[in-house]
Amino acid sequence: MFRGNLSDILLTYRPKDDQILSPATRVIFGHIDGTNRQICLKMWRPCKNGLYDTEDAVKRLDYLLEGLEFNRRFAQDVYLGIASAEELNGENSNEDTKKIQLSPVIEYPNRNQLDPELQYALVMKRLKEDWHLEHQLRPGKLGTERGLEFLATEIARMHLQLIPSPESMGNAGTIWRKLILNEHLFAKALSELKDQNIENYELLGHTLTQAYTAYAELFEQRYQEGHIKRCHGDLKSTNLWVRPKRRKSLQQLLTLDCVDFRPDFCHIDTLSDVAMLAIDIEQHLVNLPGKGVNRQEGKELTQHFLNVYLERVHEKSEVALPLLEYYMTEKSMVCAYMSILYDALLPLGKKYLDVALTHSQKLEGLLKSTGR
Asked: Residue 281 in 3-state DSSP?
């Protein structure tokens, strides 16, 4: 347990085991020298690749500050603040262990007191691995109707607290531009699947385009009714942790690592936000190793999660369900191309492709049933 402000910190970590790299970020898990205290750092790296634009140091600092402000609201007692970070033996050295010198952690940083010329890190407590939702989504834990009711209720509670987005965000035009970007990156990911049968997946973008046209009025209605909010933007099991019951508190869902680098990815319909978690739950449940639920049970449990969520946020299912199918198709495409292009997780990307195909077919059925 951390108490008070942290002074200068010397952090030790093992690059091969305690570091997660993406094109634009570094996440480092380490311990403070001379103690058994574990902390986690997130740092932005310079990158410009069509999805991320983090070459500008001022932008990277702004992303850290926005991420700190949002994440603190929904992961209480996890985010400690930010600190400047200096790699003492060089990021590219081949040593088995490395050290990072951190300045005193600034719990509530003011933009004007920070120097963009320095490298800053978001500083967090390291949570227990068995709290991770990836380990909880299985029978006997949260991979049950009761467990998913807990998740749905917690996400609904979060969404009801979110602030409305600026008027320029989340309208039909924004959704269209994001669809074009996602189709482009999805096509790029499919091109990486050499010697694979991709014909079925190539039609997913066409189905989404049809649905966008058919549901244009629904998108506009959601915008006018104020359903566009500053959401998490990346609700999936890798970013969610469940803190167990404690003496004076109930079991709690902690949402970490919100989207903070692209406004169009987080100022979205709340249905789009929950759709990401829904397809991630489905992917996990239908691909459980060993003894678990079968595919049909996994899909039914995912639908139960969505039904409970809609009830908790007082949404009408006849309006929400068509849009949820649109967003679940889109989000599974996003998870597929992120896994293939940016995370080097080809097997996981293929699993998301199958989820995308399932929801694309359901979306086609809805379009045909309504004559759209």
From this structure: helix
- Say if residue 72 is exposed, middle or buried (CB neighbours under 10 Å; 0-12, 13-18, 19+): middle
Rounded distance between C-alpha atoms, residue 256 and residue 74, angstroms: 8
Copy the structure tokens of residue 249.
């508190």
Sequence-distant (6+) residues with CB within 8 A of 34 are 10
Alpha helices in 43-103 (DSSP H): 57-74
- Cβ burial 314-328 (10 Å sphere, 16+ → b, else e): ebeeeebbbbbbbbb
Phi, psi (rounded to 5 degrees) for 213: -65, -45
**pLDDT tens for each residue of 216-231:** 999 999 999 999 999 9
Cα 262 to Cα 60, 162, 168, 267: the distances in Å are 12, 17, 14, 9
Residue type, 234: D
Residues 6 or more apart whose CB falls under 8 angstroms from that of 146 comprise: none
Cα(18)–Cα(316) distance, integer angstroms: 45
Q: Tell me: the pLDDT tens digits for 2-48?
A: 444 556 789 999 999 999 998 999 999 999 998 889 999 999 999 99
Closest C-alpha to 251, from 157, 314, 353: 157
Instruction: Give the CA angle between residues 115, 119, 122 to the nearest 5°.
Output: 100
Rounded to whole angstroms, how far apart are CA atoms 153 and 252?
11
| Calpha distance 251→148 (Å, rounded) | 13
Q: pLDDT tens digit string along 193-249?
A: 876 788 889 999 999 999 999 999 999 999 999 999 999 999 999 999 999 987 777
- Assess whether pLDDT exceeds 70 at residue 324: yes
Measured in whole angstroms, how far is the alpha carbon of residue 345 from the centre of its chain? 16
Question: What residues does 239 pair with on adjacent strands?
Answer: none
Check: CB of residue 105 under 8 Å from CB of residue 5.
yes
Model pTM?
Answer: 0.92
User: How do strand 9-13 and strand 25-32 relate by DSSP bridges?
Assistant: antiparallel
145 and 301 Cβ atoms separated by less than 8 Å: yes
